[in-house]
Design a protein that fits this description.
heterodimer; A: 413 residues; alpha+beta; 7 helices; 38% strand; B: 179 residues; mainly alpha; 9 helices
Chain lengths: 413, 179
């Protein structure tokens, strides 16, 4: 057997006994086989590095622009407005006006000045209203015409009229309320100490139901006919009418938070988010968010692990999860259960609200930033009077709670 | 919602579906383009052209292949066009040094990379698709638009040339050490 026959057999992976014995006897073919092995083994290490941050957004932007010109030649298709408008909406209008002004006025310099005009917050400052609550607010939920705020330390739920911004009602909420949510026409208030949850009728403020289901740590989630509470490493499914526990679903790790969105429950654990199908009550996916690290306080201690994977909500076809210590916001595609984008936030221990056209981020400073969900760029910065401990978006406004100052601040965006 | 459904919706004018389709497949498209062209800006341009082309021809997608394979096939052609057009973007020194430090190349890997660069276009593409990016020979054949048997022989030829090249480097090194 000659060298070339042997090597052809090697590269086409058709080794025979004769080829093998030739390789053993021939140093040149042994070297060739070894080199071939190296080639195949090392090939994956030549895989291209991931694109630099921002590449995808630039590509999307270019394709959106190109698609709009396609639309002019193909009237059946509409331009790719969704990508173009969120980023350029107000600025594009401003730029177009500026171009018109420049052309009419005969000077081009106006165009540039307008396009780099001060941010929206300075040009058109938002209306900011602050209400002193008299209690230390912890969390907030909304019904028609009202914001409902619970206080863990003061054990009450307050109703704030969203027109007058005044406290109109105070409801005792038992010991240590831990969460509030609004769904199915009721308010749902959980408590960790009293082992109960309350169903409050927002029209009358009366407590409509009270059941014993120990130690729920966060707001209840309510889907058709079922109330979902999380207790330690279990998710409880409760019949909304009877209050009976229908199922106890074990979670992959201790639950720290949960939201409902994209037809699923998204339960934040120490490092990951578990997706639960509310129809079947089963965990359909576990999505890693943060890198697990040893707990210096012992395996049973959740201290320091409570905010590595906090689902912030659903919006823009995705579910958004905050890792506060790592200052990241992960975007999960519900179709694939994969994190498709992880954004590094320039905020220390950020809190996030998902708006109708933007992501809003606050932290322990007095600024709130608007992040475009397409380009992931900060497009507006709003300064308020105090830092924020909780943030929510409702009716075109941001609602901020400051626990220490006992305030609710509304920012009309 | 799977890719096929997204493509159908995008074809009907649902631009959000197209955006999601792009986001989902971008990593694979990027890797393919970057494996074929020589620098990031050119790869970016190739992927961009691919997506514009895909957007334009959504209505003609028949669903014979997986959507990802269809996109990869378009991306392959766009990357090849970029390469053949010779419009090599300028890569800054900063980005070159970043690439070098990111890979932390061993000498062997550098030798292999040089050997890959020295391959002909068709063999380099075959090697990149199958060995570097991990597609099967059959998938790679669909992406490139050639029979599977041709892809198999291209991969084998690429392997042969690369192994010759690496064995030669090792031999030269050994002789150098002896001298």
């Amino acid at each position: 057997m000659n060298h070339s026959t042997c090597r052809r057999a090697l590269v086409s992976d058709q080794l025979t006994a004769a080829t093998r014995s030739h390789i053993e006897a021939c140093p040149a073919c042994t070297a060739f086989a070894s080199a071939l092995d190296t080639v195949v083994t090392m090939a994956p290490t030549l895989a291209p590095a991931a694109p630099a941050q921002g590449t995808l957004e630039r590509v999307l932007e270019s394709v959106a622009t190109a698609s709009s010109s396609l639309a002019t030649t193909k009237p059946a298709r509409r331009p790719w407005r969704r990508l173009r408008v969120p980023r350029f909406g107000p600025l594009a209008v401003a730029a177009a006006v500026a171009v018109a002004v420049a052309v009419i006025g005969g000077t081009v310099s106006h165009v540039w000045q307008r396009s780099v005009a001060p941010r929206e917050s300075n040009a058109n400052p938002p209306r900011i209203v602050t209400t002193t609550l008299g209690v230390a607010p912890t969390g907030i939920a909304f019904t028609q015409g009202a914001a409902w705020i619970y206080s863990t330390s003061d054990s009450v739920v307050l109703r704030v009229d969203t027109t007058t911004h005044r406290v109109t009602q105070t409801i005792p909420a038992g010991l240590t309320p831990t969460g509030i949510s609004a769904a199915e026409g009721f308010l749902w208030v959980t408590s960790i100490s009293d082992n109960h949850y309350l169903r409050v009728d927002p029209r009358t403020g009366s407590v409509a139901q009270r059941d014993q289901h120990g130690g729920a740590k966060g707001p209840a989630m309510v889907t058709a006919g079922s109330v979902w509470l999380y207790v330690a490493e279990s998710l409880l499914r409760i019949d909304e009418q009877t209050g009976r526990v229908l199922a106890t679903i074990p979670m992959p790790s201790r639950i720290t938070s949960g939201v409902f969105g994209a037809d699923s429950l998204w339960m934040g654990g120490y490092w990951d988010v578990a997706r639960v199908d509310p129809r079947t009550g089963t965990v359909s996916a576990v999505i890693p968010i943060a890198t697990p690290a040893p707990n210096v306080l012992g395996e049973d201690s959740a201290f320091g692990f409570a905010d590595n994977a906090l689902p912030a909500g659903a919006g823009f076809g995705s579910v958004w999860v905050v890792d506060r210590p790592e200052q990241t916001l992960s975007r999960i595609d519900p179709a694939t259960n994969k994190v498709i984008v992880k954004i590094k936030l320039p905020h220390a221990r950020p809190i996030v609200a998902i708006g109708t056209d933007a992501i809003w981020v606050a932290d322990s400073t007095k600024t709130i930033e608007r992040i475009d969900p397409v380009t992931y760029r900060v497009t507006n910065t709003i300064t308020v009077n105090s830092s924020s401990d909780a943030i929510a978006f409702q009716d075109g406004s941001l609602w901020l709670l400051n626990t220490g100052l006992h305030t609710l601040t509304r920012v009309q965006t | 919602m799977d890719d096929r459904e997204l493509a159908a919706r995008a074809s009907g004018g649902d631009d959000a579906a197209f955006e999601l389709l792009v986001r989902r497949n971008f990593p694979a498209l990027w890797k393919l383009a970057r494996a074929i062209v020589h620098d990031d800006p050119t790869a970016e341009e190739a992927v961009q052209n691919c997506l514009v082309s895909a957007y334009r021809s959504l209505g003609t997608f028949r669903g014979d292949a997986a959507v990802r394979t269809w996109l990869l096939a378009i991306c392959y052609r766009c990357a090849l066009n970029q390469l053949r057009s010779g419009r090599r973007s300028i890569v800054s020194i900063d980005s070159l040094s970043a690439v070098a430090s990111r890979h932390d190349d061993t000498e062997l890997r550098i030798d292999l990379r040089r050997a890959v660069d020295a391959l002909g276009e068709s063999e380099r593409t075959a090697f990149a698709l199958v060995d570097v990016l991990g597609y099967s020979r059959e998938e790679a054949a669909v992406i490139v638009g050639i029979p599977a048997s041709t892809m198999r022989s291209r991969v084998a030829r690429a392997h042969g040339h690369l192994a010759e090249s690496l064995a030669g480097v090792r031999r030269d090194m050994a002789e150098g050490l002896r001298a």
